[in-house]
Amino acid sequence: MKSNQLFLLFFLIAFSIYGQGDERDGRDGSHVFKYPITLTECDRMGNEILQRDPLVETMEMGWKFAITLVTTKDFVIHIYKFPKKRSGYEIQNKKTFRTEHGTSIFYKISKEQYEDSAERAIATKAFVVGASTSLLKIRFGNGKDGDDAIYSEFGNDFNLGITAGVRLSGFKMKDFSLSLVGGIGYTAIKVTPQTTNNFILTESTQSSITLNGGFIVEIEKFQFSLFMGIDTMSGEIGRNWIHRNRPWLGIGFGYEIFKPKEKEKNS
Length: 267
What we know:
six-stranded antiparallel β-barrel
């Protein structure tokens, strides 16, 4: 059991390091036009088209697009495909998405134009994976007296875990989202003679696997989390631990690691 716990700890640390190294340059995610803007077609490398007259198209407010290439001064973009429910979608797609010969259409927009007329699009619902740690963990008592009493505890056990779930955004407050997630983690718990019914004689630290679920409130890059969970401690100490199979309430902070990319369509 201990080898499994060490493997989980190593995996969580490696996973966190991998996520922190994911530097964004604008090519991830979707983008949307805030205002109409007229752009000229280019090839996928951002070069001028010489074989024919390039398309000049006015991009309407609300159209979504992907950034496929980043140069020193410009972005090369690809407009998302318009769905069948949109009136005139076939003609529009041949003008901005893909030609009748099946060639993808690209446009170039300067970084100054992007700042003025576009922004990153935030999906109202998205799958998220993240790493988090609880700064405060509250273990509840049983309300009994005497030998059967289990008293509430406030602790800050070392813990590191991964979570996955659904993030909801699109609220009236900008840069605000709510995520409903569940996860698994590694926890180092301090146990004493009092919390093990005198099974041990001195204080020690024991490893535990944690299962939890809760929600994360995110405002810009800051996240506040509230979780309920259960710690599973192995061995004889775990079987004598007074909080065995008892839920805890955790309060903490975290950071988003990554979001899987999704194929987008214009609405």
